[in-house]
Please model this.
Amino acid sequence: QVQLVESGGGLVQPGGSLRLSCAASGSISRVYVLGWFRQAPGKQRELVATIGRGGNTNYQDSVKGRFTISRDNAKNTVYLQMNSLKPEDTAVYYCHAAGVNVYWGQGTQVTVSS
Model:
């Protein structure tokens, strides 16, 4: 089993920044990809960004150039730095871990509003 605990969400004005963190614990050796998904009200959950063990990254087109995903393997933590936030980035953000199985965090709310 892998447990994921997110932090860092909140309310921010358009153009602002937030950094999300996700600490993983448990059977970490079975996790190969860490990432972030998000789900806005009335919409399906969508991929935001992923990062592999070797550091290879993948981003949704709408966040490229604004969001940066990184991981600290020593701390078993994945980060999502979000800059130039837009109202359409408002959603619950979920940490995701994939390997032998798939795991999800409890979600953290990000609200972009003036």
Summary: The two ends are 40 Å apart (CA to CA). The first strand starts at residue 2 and ends at 7.
